[in-house]
Protein 1
Amino acid sequence: MRRTLLPATIVTLFVVAIQLDILSSLRFAGTVIMLVWLWPVAMGLAGFTSLALYVALLGGVLVDTHSTTPFGLTAIVGLLLAYCASLLGREGVGDLDSAAYWVTPVLAAVAGFAAPPIYVFGGVFVFNFDLWRGSVASMMVVNAVAFLVLARIVTRAARAVASVGERVRR
Amino acid sequence: MATDRSRRRALTLGATLTVVVVALYASGGVFSGLRTAANAVVSPFTWSVNEVARPIGHFFAGAVNYGDVVAQNQKLRYELGKAQQQENETWSFQRQLEQITTQLDVPFVGSLPTVTAQITTLSPTSFAATVDIDKGRDQGLLAGMPVVANGGLVGSIVSTTPNGATVRLISDTRSVVGVTFGKGTTPLVVSGRGVNNGLFATSVPLSTSLTPGTLLATDGLDGGLFPAGLPVARVSTVTLTPGAATYNLTLRPTADLRHLSYVDVVLWEPST
């Protein structure tokens, strides 16, 4: 885990940069694709639990510092998604090689679909009751579709990042 | 593969760290430092992503939208010429109006200094309608200052760094603007409905004569968040629920919030 921290950190910083610089402008139906959530989900589905939680926290906190929404909420939702994905990843459910080709994308799409309402629900705990007023339904659909399309690529990237650490250890 | 125990430990550690960071945020001023530090960490990566992505984006956008760009350019040139003509015509009227409003001690935004800033990034999530601008504390910007562009109020500054600031748009779900219309006798509260959903006002007394197209402007009440007279929105629809004693309004911002490139920050503090 320690050996993979550096590559995971660097890639996560690039993911945050892409989120801030490209995806925030490239909106579909006015909705931003949350790559900072897909990245830990992919890492979790690839079976790297600790790394998934780490990148969820790092990416979430960095995005939260650039947003006026309740601080820490993006990180918490990312942690939750990463934890759930890693439960499946550990059992090999989201594995790109052994599972059917559609399993990883579908699991990621479910995560993308569930993430916005979890975020809105989380806002209640920090006394923000206004988040539901945004277009939550379009966020769910757009993120689900985006996660479905990008899941295999991002999961491969997650495996590549983790394997860099493995190679260094050998 | 991680064991259940190590996974739980990692999740607990992550959640604890998040709570600690949230606590630091809640404690106040630390957030500004945290934000500056996060900017410093992320900015080299943002810069490199930008350097790679922008030329590619421009290439495709240029190839696909060339005709539109030419047409837009011609339209803008025409509008610029028209605006310059109007500016010349209204200059003398402006001076007279400023003199009168100064005598009446009415805050008039035309006499307030402004700082022009460029939009650098949009909100990284769909849950907040904000934009970041390239001017900050070092240029005299402070939290609470109104931001105008494209013919009306855009929002207000919510946080600043030495060379940047975040503007909460009036369409943000947490935005609240005190407005009035006509002779200015009826105060209303306009709230945002999220990035693409315009604005709304509820509990509007039935005695008010609001029709679609009516212009609402900031009320400038004592202790208010905005100076008086900034155009905010026009009424789109007026809804009266049967049996209700008030109207609900849906509103269209006067400023085009979807195509912001440059904005003017009005150097006016709410406390003044």
Protein 2
Amino acid sequence: MKDEDAPKPDHNSGLTRRDFIKISGVGVAVPLAFGPTVVRAAGEDVAVHGPNKVSIALNVNGKKLTAELEPRVTLLDALRDTFNLTGAKRVCDRGTCGACTVLLEGKPVYACMVLAIDAQGKQITTIEGLTEGDTLTPVMQAFVDHDAQQCGFCTPGFVVATTHFLQQHPQATEDDIRRGLSGNFCRCGTYDGIRAVALTRMAAAKSTSRNDTTALEGGSL
Amino acid sequence: MSDYAWPDPATRPFLGKKISRVDGPIKSSGRAKYTYDYNPAGLLAGKILRCPHAHARITSIDTSAAEKMPGVKAVQIIQKPGAEIFWAGDEVVAVAAVDEPTAEDALRAIKVQYEPLPHFVSDAEPPQNIASSGGPISQDDFEDMEDNQVPDEQVIAAIQQNGISFHPGEKYLKDAQESGVDKKVVEALRTAKYVEAPPGSKSPYKKTAVQTQGEPDNAFASAAAVVEGLYGASCITHCCLETHGMAAEWPGPNDSSASPGTNLLVHISTQNLSGIAPQIAEPMKIPAGSIQVMQQYIGGGFGSKFSPDRWGIAATQLSKSAGGKPVKIMLDRAAEQEVAGMRPSSFARVKIAADKDGKLVAWESRSWGTGGVGGGGTPPLPYILEIPNQRKQNVAISTNQGSARAWRAPNHPQAAVITMSAIEDLAAKMNIDPVEFLTRNLDMTGPRAAIYRDELPIAAEMMEWKNNWHPRGDKTDGPVKRGLGLSMHTWGGRGHNSDCDLTIHPDGSVEIKMATQDLGTGCRTIITIVAADTLGIPMENVKLLIGDSRYPVSGASGGSTTSGGVTSSTRRAAVDARNQLFAKVAPALNAKPEDLEAVNATVRLRGDPSRSLSWKDACAKLGAMPMTVRGKNPDKSKPPDLTNSGVGGVQMADVSVDTETGIVRVNKMVAVQDCGLVVDVKTAESQVKGALIMGISYALYEEKILDPVTGRMLNPNMEFYRLAGIADVRELKVHMMTGKGYDERGVIGLAEPPVVSPGAAISNAVANAIGVRVPFLPLTPARVLEVLEAHG
């Protein structure tokens, strides 16, 4: 990525580029001394970033990561290509398959549908952030125990989605599981195992919560 | 019993049990590194410019602007001006740049001009009147129309309107009339206007198989019941979640990251690790031995990933142009769907007959389908049943689309849906329960009859067939109709050639090296099971190294050949290693080597556990040096044959069909499957469940839809190329045949067979539910409603 020929970072935003002209309803361009250019669009002041590289800072798995990226780079590509966090996979690249699922402010999102620049200032959790070292979370262990994975390419997305679903829906029915996890696709056909993961983790959480009603909130899953 | 033979159930701690896959933890924690994840320092992004036309000639290419762009490191023209392109999405130019956005910009800066040529992408219509394009009827066209029973009026009209591009002599006309061509049609030919065929107007239809056995006409004439029907399955894609792709780099002599002797380092998503280097060596004109090929994990292949492909070679060339820096080209989703593999379509008009006892007597099929420019596959019809009297022919249609690749059990799912649907329709006409009907005809399945005879009652029991089945057409009130259907299948699955090295170290550690791949089938797990089982040590003590072409050669993972191959070579290596260890240990135990056994991490005297050494102490007797042995498959010098071929399986489906919306839901599927000796019941069951789910997917949702006007795929994505989701999958029940009659057959592959039957079983269940046949897969709401409407 470090290359002398690479397009240079643009902290001052080039207004001469075609891309800028494409913005509709643009009024007056007001270059500021620092930070992005601001233009008046549809009656409001709008900051214009790029099209060249700008400094982007992300909070990923509790760490601050920074890079010079073009504003068009997605959160997924930034995680994978720039920060080498490759657990989230690029599969459909347009918000259908869920293989790139990460948590943004604790909520699952398709990382291919979020621009890295828009994810600044938010807590991002990837599958790598769910564990420390070689230990598995109970949900990950359940994926192993129920053989809920074959090629494994959809698995990280499913693990993140399942973990969040179980935290949010501790009393889910089998139908709820089908609906709640239908934002992820698998090609090898591991859904039966994934359903078993959800059911057994829910049963385990229920038996724990008899003693400790806050177990679910505390992330025992 | 030979040393090498698979052990008895009593003496196998892991083999045949339910064992969790050994690479489960690394996958579920997201740490498994796939080719797509390969991200070394200085990696360049490779991208490919593809042809937007289904058939065209390149007239000019201008890459000058792209080459001047900052960050662009190399540009490679893949097909030069003058080249004829035969399908949309074919590769034209490749670029490598510092990152993906820059590479994409570079593609947009390349100017390619094309001369569009006429294209043809339609396969759903039977091959009848090719001259609809306006051209004259060729001799092939005419004969295809006759073979496909195009109504005489249509044939005559086509001849009169378009003329003919051949000269039928009197002998030809006489022969035609004698072979059954209508007199009026012969007359039309005789008086037809001759029209010169325009150049390049070759018919896309090509007859690939014509065969008659027995006396089909007499058999049909004297049969008790005959049905005719139209059946088939549309083109689908492999839709691997990890798209095809490869990274290539040319390490310099001082590059510490490369193994000594490696001039070209390749990371590739492949089912064929050992077979990649030769395919790169040839176009790159370098010794195959200087290429190192690596892959630890692969995100799906299903038969589509055996070669480096054009993009892999392009990555290699781009890297070379860029001074050896690593270049990675992974296909984007649209290219993956459009050009990286599809399963040929197959459709057929079928006539089938039985005698009064419900024994099949005659079969006639006129099938057609496409597998891209090269034509199509020929489904083995009639499937698995050797019906005594047959007449069949197949027409391959050449269409302008990316070529077919092996798709899990090539040709079998199509053959199953055509054959099993026809049989079910005949059984319905004769008012015979299809389980009973198939049972009466099992003697026609040859050597696998005994397997099916075992399996059919088990499947029927699991489905509660006797209670739940009803004659055709659910007569209950309400719009939702329920039905049951079944199908049977077979596959070969003999183990491929496989070498492995097994090393025992003096400290007791054990490692195995093999240049194979684990597609998610559990390959790593079964190798580890066999080694641990044979050496009597915990599975954790076996370190397995795969995914590097420098290890001993093992076959490609295609055709369900891996399980039999890798377990057989591992078993032989482990037995030899164990016996050599026994020879070293025997003096210390004051015993003969042949009286020793390796159990529970000890080496001990058989029948006297008091005379034993721990595994670690036993291995210390090796002295200072480790010991390596080579295991092979096949190996006639070390009998018996540990693998086998020819499995049988039975599947049943329970569906609900909403007759108002046309939506089909699969309530339950059962699969009873044989694969000889099951090494790991857990991963085997997963494999079968996965096949059922993939089957639900292609039976109900998947279709590669081509636009006849533009020749392009209309759904090269995952929102409109629909895979089954978790909500579409209900109850799945799997029963693996094990024990006597099965274990002693040896290890047989399992990947293909269970994916053959779901389409046929589901189609039959839908027919049973709504009382009429929906001819083609996928059984979309539109197709279901169309049939319901046609039948009132």
Protein 3
Amino acid sequence: MKPLILIIEDDAQIRRFLRAALAAEGYRLQEAITAEEGLAQATARQPDLILLDLGLPDRDGLEIIQQVREWGKIPILVLSARGREQDKIAALDLGADDYVAKPFAVGELLARIRAALRRSSTRADGVGSVVRFGTVEVDLEKRVVRVDAQEVHLTPNEYKLLQVLIQHAGKVLTQRQLLNEVWGPQHTEQAQYLRVYIAQLRRKLERNPARPKYLQTEPGVGYRLVTEE
Amino acid sequence: MLLRDTLAPTNLAMIYLGGVVAVAMRCSRWISVTASFVSVAAFDFFCVPPYLTLAVSDYQYVFTFAGMLVVALVISTQTARLRDHATHSTVREARTEALYRLSSRLAGETRVFEAARAAASLAEEVFGARIVIFLPEDGRLSFSRRTSDLLPVPPSEESIAQWVFENGHRAGLRTDVHSNATALYLPLRGAREIFGVLAVLPDPAGRIFAPEQQQLLEVFGSQTALAIERIMSQRSAEETRVHMRTEQMRSSLLSAMSHDLRTPLASITGAASTLRWQGDRLLLETKQELLESISDEAERLNRLVGNLLDMTRFESGGVELRRDLYPLEEIVGTVLQRMEPQLEGRAVLTDLAENLPLVFVDDVLMGQLLSNLLENAAKYTPLGSPLEIGAFEESGTVILEVRDRGPGVPPGDEERIFEKFYRGQSEKMAGKVRGAGLGLPICRAIAQAHRGTIQALPRPGGGTIFRVSLPIRSK
């Protein structure tokens, strides 16, 4: 059966085109206009993914993320307004999986939905022991990284950072999340370490570090490892 | 009595005169005049036979008394006058000094409240009393807008202060109006209106009620009022200037808006309605074209609205920089990534110096600056001409450059292209206006917010260099 997507969005026109676009892809849909209704349906129907608008009339969309995360791991994709980086970070830190900034093109939205659904279905089996993207090959078991079949030496912190990014490949990770996972919870304010390490990883893995293909920056939010062409 | 036997009576008279001089030096004129009479009487009583009576046996003494009295009176009045004169000039001097300090303290003030506060604290010092100035809020005098944190007068007296503010007469303690109040309230009267009320809580001795102190207080009040008046008129002149500029901006904004927003809207409406009403009669290819134009134009509209919003936010001071240390490389990379579709078919060369220091910037805004520059370059240079992004360090600054091989900025326009709604001459002549003229002004606003600069320079060999200089954060 095709995945069920719950759309929580108060604007009728946006719901209309989301409905058209998602139905055309074969997804089953459920719609809610308010946060209250959205939460009720999320609990009752257990959708495979939630598309959530942060600006809802009755309650802050962030509350929905918080409440859903209390009981489940349903992927949540946030629709946010342009330029509200703080909202995006707050949503991601609360456990949202990704965001798309309005206005967005449908192609981008569908790609994000597919990636989120894939991540949630493969989460159980974990990541394979060898991960490849472009010319990069990472053997997670032997802890070996190769670029163009040449072994590349990474420092322990660089490797750990890459490992975390691979675990969440395709998903945007906030600076706080990355710092927390790599350096521990007491270092979450030292974002410039992270940037320096990302720059070093880019120099080692990317063909042109000034135009990275894999280690992408989400300005004002964090980083995303892109493993697909 | 002993002296009476050793000294001649005339010399004894001298001692009494000495006493008169001593009294006159210290006491007021009336006391010293009285002393003159008393000394003559005492001389008669003690030193002229018959002793211990005021009777005089030798009428020669009557002349002595008269002479003595005249001399005593002259001495006492002259001494008193001299002393008065000296005190007066000390008072005048103190007064001049106080007023001088007041005017020099008020001269530099550009804010009403600060001026009032400076005046009140100086007045407390000069008069040795508690003094607070109340200023009006929305046309009413209010105790909440006051120069001191403490409210030394009871809140119930706000109505007295309000009365003073409205009527321009003093009231309160030792006046005809509300004389049982705890404080004296004086209006701060300027040339045209009343700017506030000065309340005085007198010292226990009540020295401030001395006539010369009251006079000085009046002058203090009017000096303060005049200073406030000057500040307010300066401000209203500034407001008028700003208002005129805003009006000017608004009209050019409106004309730009009506054109730039309507054009893409017109194509979207046109294309969408064509598809809706004639969709079944159109070639598949035509449909595709119309759909493409809808999304392109919507994207253009989105950028335009974004620019307008950004500019408005910058101008209203609503932009808060979220600065941190970033490698410039990362910002450049992100922008190029995002702009790939717009830069299609262009060679974009990156030429970033090795070992650039981290820059202390807001990454989102800096990315926007760079993408605006690239967008601008893509718009004003021939399709297919190469672009270059360069960065290097130069004497304490990091320089970021976007270089193109376009027609260059016409001489004389190097500054104006950073002004809002300004469009290059070539664009006007070609009759195609493609932006709202906000891209570069936003770049400048962002550069300035980072305490940096941006300039357009001619590029050797043809084209333009847009150069952004950012100060390196000194640790």
Protein 4
Amino acid sequence: MVKVKMKLTPEETDILHGSQGETLRKTMETLVRYGEAYNAECLIPLDGPIHMVCSFGMPTLRPLYKIMEQYVAEGIKTKLPFTADPRPMDYENVEVSEKEKQIFHQIYADQDQYEDILKKIGLKNNNAFSCACYFDEVGNVPKRGDVLAWAESSAVVYANSVIGARTNRTSGVMELFSGIIGKTPKFGFLTDEGRKADWIIEVRTAKIPRPQVLGSAIGMKVLEQVPYIKGLDKFLGTTLTSEAKDYLKDMGAATASNGAVGLYHVENLTPEAKDYGEELIRPGAKTYVIDDAELERVVNSYPIMWKKIDEPPQLAFIGCPHCSFVQLCEWTETLVKALREEGKEKVAIPTLISSAPDVCEKFEKTEYYPRLMATGAHLTYICPLMYMSNPLCSAKRVITNSNKLRTYSVSRYVDDADLVRAVVRGGLQ
Amino acid sequence: MKEFHGRAVIPGELKGSALVSHTGFNVLASFWKSLTEGQNPSICVDQNNSEFFGKQLTGEILCIPQVVGSTTAGMIIQSVAALGTEPKAMLFSHTAESLAISGVLLADIWENKKIITVDGLGDQFLEAVSNGDKVEICLDGTVRVGI
């Protein structure tokens, strides 16, 4: 272990010197060297549970499972019950062929064992699998100012920006280490200075931009830096309504996946921007103007990865990140209306709508659920990206309104209106 | 020959050819086939990175501005290191994002694999280096291009 500059407590120093065994020593060494790389002054206690990005049992990730098995063997658990990203498979609600199933079993061969390990080291419950752990129904809901160690880029950017909690874009495994020790290095978004904006984004569009495209444009431009977004309150208002939160959820996921944004401020809307305004902008911040032409340029830059680009789509994915309860109700109304207008009863292509297990359970008790089921769409809790990891599934022509899914797969981005038209008519024309 | 000075996050000495991307390096999207199919050597499958797409990443000296994308990045770097398909070095023009730092630390501490990592080399580094250029990395974070 190299000489430590960070101020450690006697207990932390003892762990670092191996007083609680080799596994915790290496855990502490990793956290300390991680903090040292960013000149963290100390380790700071977590105020809430971690959220883990790894929810899938892939044999190639056995190095991670090996570490977790060591924790289990030594009786080590996270300080608080935690949540994790969505499960990769849902055979009950997502139809797959026998061949596709076989491949899923190969890719996620360790799924059952992995979930068993997660439970043993502190997973909250059997429903705790969602990228949107901050939904009230899921229950990993931080308060403003809470110090966290979350992974899952879309959850991190939501927690920081919309809630005003404080978490770095913690990597998979590193978030687990913080949950085990109960502390995380204090740097970056955990400090006031680290939350200041490097960019001013001026939104000058004629109408409200599509959140997934606006987020994509911002992410590609600012990469990991913090944007202060002006002009969006004109469309979203100055109150964080459920509609505004859903918009920011989807926009944020695109900023984080198309770039590496972990925090944004929206003038007159997000908590810190409301309190501090332009004081959050660093001197010398750069400006990026986004108008309709710029958004068009961004959309046109997306490559279409389908082998036969003129052929109709074979599957549609909605819900990456997971849909909120309100969004599930809205999609129900949208699909029902679009089918009625076309004189049809069922969607023309398989349409998968994904949400958190707890949100799905709540939705299933409402009058919306039978109406959605009547359209032929499927409600599921899987991670669309994990579904697309199956080469037989990714060989299909998949459309999605998610810029995150587009980025990590060969699916094709379409906006909501085009997606609805496609699932109702069976083609993009 | 041009010389640049950065911070040696994982120090090491190495000479080799540069593989350059001027856009952010998306670890998950790039190593997707290694992750899901155990592809070895790792070939970049990130459709958004035209400079890396289709190129071998294993054993290369990656010259990049920054790591972008999913927070799985750290554990993926650890896993490709455990598989033996990791790049030899990562040279960043910006300060390396926490995901990249996590990954190279996990590889070092838990897999005993050193992916030489130097960050903060400056924008001029990426302007000066091209694919195939001979690069020398020194222990103190000095990087020479066109040796």
